[in-house]
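Tutorial handout. Part one gives the primary structure; part two gives the three-dimensional structure as C-alpha coordinates.
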Amino acid sequence: MKKYIFMIAALLTLGVAAVSCETMTNEPEGGNKIGDMAGHWTVTVDAIDAQGNILYEDPYGMGEVDINTYATVNDETDKMWLYDGSFYGLQLLVPIDLAARTFEVENVPYDLVETGMTTLKGKIMPKAGKNLHGVAVDSICVEATFSDDPNGLIWRYSGIRYQGFTE
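Part two.
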Protein backbone atom coordinates (compact mmCIF):
# COMPACT_ATOMS: atom_id res chain seq x y z
CA MET A 1 0.00 0.00 0.00
CA LYS A 2 2.85 2.38 0.86
CA LYS A 3 4.31 1.73 -2.57
CA TYR A 4 1.09 2.91 -4.28
CA ILE A 5 0.81 6.03 -2.12
CA PHE A 6 4.43 6.88 -2.91
CA MET A 7 3.83 6.38 -6.66
CA ILE A 8 0.71 8.58 -6.64
CA ALA A 9 2.54 11.31 -4.70
CA ALA A 10 5.48 11.15 -7.13
CA LEU A 11 3.16 11.40 -10.16
CA LEU A 12 1.31 14.37 -8.64
CA THR A 13 4.62 16.12 -7.88
CA LEU A 14 5.84 15.58 -11.44
CA GLY A 15 2.53 16.82 -12.83
CA VAL A 16 2.64 20.00 -10.76
CA ALA A 17 6.28 20.59 -11.70
CA ALA A 18 5.54 20.19 -15.42
CA VAL A 19 2.58 22.59 -15.33
CA SER A 20 4.40 25.20 -13.23
CA CYS A 21 7.13 25.57 -15.87
CA GLU A 22 4.71 26.58 -18.61
CA THR A 23 4.80 30.19 -19.80
CA MET A 24 1.63 31.93 -18.70
CA THR A 25 1.95 34.98 -20.96
CA ASN A 26 2.50 35.79 -24.59
CA GLU A 27 4.49 38.94 -23.73
CA PRO A 28 8.00 38.98 -25.17
CA GLU A 29 10.88 38.86 -22.71
CA GLY A 30 12.97 41.95 -22.20
CA GLY A 31 12.83 45.42 -20.75
CA ASN A 32 11.08 48.42 -22.13
CA LYS A 33 11.49 50.75 -25.07
CA ILE A 34 13.31 53.47 -23.13
CA GLY A 35 16.00 50.99 -22.15
CA ASP A 36 18.40 52.04 -19.45
CA MET A 37 16.90 55.50 -19.07
CA ALA A 38 14.58 53.63 -16.73
CA GLY A 39 16.10 52.83 -13.39
CA HIS A 40 16.48 53.19 -9.66
CA TRP A 41 18.98 55.92 -8.77
CA THR A 42 20.81 56.83 -5.58
CA VAL A 43 21.37 60.60 -5.53
CA THR A 44 22.33 63.50 -3.30
CA VAL A 45 20.45 66.79 -3.50
CA ASP A 46 22.30 70.11 -3.37
CA ALA A 47 21.17 73.72 -3.78
CA ILE A 48 23.04 75.43 -6.62
CA ASP A 49 23.22 78.86 -8.23
CA ALA A 50 22.45 79.65 -11.89
CA GLN A 51 26.05 78.86 -12.88
CA GLY A 52 25.91 75.40 -11.26
CA ASN A 53 28.05 76.26 -8.24
CA ILE A 54 26.99 74.55 -5.01
CA LEU A 55 25.41 76.97 -2.53
CA TYR A 56 24.35 74.39 0.07
CA GLU A 57 25.61 70.82 0.00
CA ASP A 58 22.89 68.43 1.19
CA PRO A 59 21.17 71.29 3.09
CA TYR A 60 18.67 69.09 4.92
CA GLY A 61 21.21 66.42 5.87
CA MET A 62 19.28 63.69 4.05
CA GLY A 63 22.39 62.04 2.61
CA GLU A 64 21.59 59.78 -0.30
CA VAL A 65 17.97 59.56 -1.44
CA ASP A 66 16.35 57.38 -4.08
CA ILE A 67 14.64 58.50 -7.26
CA ASN A 68 13.12 56.34 -9.98
CA THR A 69 12.68 56.76 -13.70
CA TYR A 70 10.39 54.31 -15.43
CA ALA A 71 8.49 53.66 -18.63
CA THR A 72 4.87 54.59 -19.21
CA VAL A 73 2.13 51.98 -19.25
CA ASN A 74 2.04 52.16 -23.06
CA ASP A 75 5.86 51.84 -23.23
CA GLU A 76 6.24 55.07 -25.19
CA THR A 77 9.66 56.16 -26.45
CA ASP A 78 9.08 59.90 -26.05
CA LYS A 79 8.21 60.13 -22.32
CA MET A 80 8.89 58.53 -18.96
CA TRP A 81 7.88 58.90 -15.34
CA LEU A 82 10.17 60.58 -12.81
CA TYR A 83 9.50 59.78 -9.16
CA ASP A 84 11.16 61.16 -6.04
CA GLY A 85 9.38 59.96 -2.94
CA SER A 86 12.08 61.15 -0.54
CA PHE A 87 12.99 64.78 -1.16
CA TYR A 88 10.36 66.97 -2.85
CA GLY A 89 7.73 64.41 -3.77
CA LEU A 90 8.16 64.64 -7.54
CA GLN A 91 5.89 62.42 -9.57
CA LEU A 92 5.57 63.60 -13.11
CA LEU A 93 5.58 62.51 -16.71
CA VAL A 94 8.51 64.05 -18.58
CA PRO A 95 9.14 64.16 -22.33
CA ILE A 96 12.46 62.55 -23.24
CA ASP A 97 14.98 62.65 -26.06
CA LEU A 98 15.95 59.00 -26.15
CA ALA A 99 18.99 59.46 -28.41
CA ALA A 100 20.47 62.25 -26.27
CA ARG A 101 19.26 60.66 -22.99
CA THR A 102 17.80 63.96 -21.80
CA PHE A 103 14.47 65.13 -20.40
CA GLU A 104 13.03 68.55 -19.70
CA VAL A 105 9.77 70.19 -18.58
CA GLU A 106 8.73 73.77 -17.92
CA ASN A 107 6.07 74.95 -15.49
CA VAL A 108 4.20 71.69 -14.97
CA PRO A 109 2.64 70.31 -11.77
CA TYR A 110 5.29 68.26 -9.99
CA ASP A 111 2.92 65.81 -8.34
CA LEU A 112 -0.43 64.19 -8.99
CA VAL A 113 -2.36 66.58 -6.72
CA GLU A 114 -0.80 69.65 -8.38
CA THR A 115 0.75 71.06 -5.21
CA GLY A 116 3.13 73.33 -7.13
CA MET A 117 4.85 73.82 -10.44
CA THR A 118 8.33 72.76 -11.48
CA THR A 119 10.80 73.44 -14.22
CA LEU A 120 13.42 70.75 -14.56
CA LYS A 121 15.97 69.34 -16.93
CA GLY A 122 18.01 66.20 -16.65
CA LYS A 123 20.43 63.88 -18.35
CA ILE A 124 21.39 60.23 -17.97
CA MET A 125 25.02 59.54 -18.76
CA PRO A 126 26.11 55.95 -19.47
CA LYS A 127 29.13 54.78 -17.44
CA ALA A 128 29.86 58.34 -16.19
CA GLY A 129 29.75 57.50 -12.46
CA LYS A 130 31.55 55.05 -10.20
CA ASN A 131 30.09 52.75 -7.58
CA LEU A 132 31.67 51.95 -4.20
CA HIS A 133 34.01 49.47 -5.86
CA GLY A 134 35.21 51.87 -8.54
CA VAL A 135 33.27 50.22 -11.35
CA ALA A 136 31.83 52.56 -14.00
CA VAL A 137 28.04 52.83 -13.76
CA ASP A 138 25.35 55.04 -15.28
CA SER A 139 24.91 58.49 -13.76
CA ILE A 140 21.99 60.91 -13.56
CA CYS A 141 21.84 64.67 -13.05
CA VAL A 142 18.58 66.62 -12.68
CA GLU A 143 18.20 70.34 -11.98
CA ALA A 144 14.81 71.54 -10.75
CA THR A 145 13.08 74.63 -9.40
CA PHE A 146 9.77 74.57 -7.52
CA SER A 147 7.18 77.33 -7.42
CA ASP A 148 6.39 76.67 -3.75
CA ASP A 149 10.02 76.70 -2.58
CA PRO A 150 10.16 79.70 -0.19
CA ASN A 151 13.84 80.31 -1.00
CA GLY A 152 13.46 79.94 -4.77
CA LEU A 153 16.52 77.69 -4.99
CA ILE A 154 17.71 75.53 -7.86
CA TRP A 155 18.02 71.92 -6.70
CA ARG A 156 20.46 69.47 -8.28
CA TYR A 157 19.88 65.75 -7.89
CA SER A 158 23.05 63.91 -8.88
CA GLY A 159 24.09 60.32 -8.43
CA ILE A 160 24.39 56.84 -9.89
CA ARG A 161 22.23 53.89 -10.82
CA TYR A 162 21.45 51.82 -7.73
CA GLN A 163 23.77 48.82 -7.52
CA GLY A 164 22.59 47.14 -4.34
CA PHE A 165 25.96 47.59 -2.62
CA THR A 166 26.21 49.12 0.83
CA GLU A 167 29.23 50.62 2.56
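Part three, for discussion. The radius of gyration is 23 Å. The chain has a mean pLDDT of 87.
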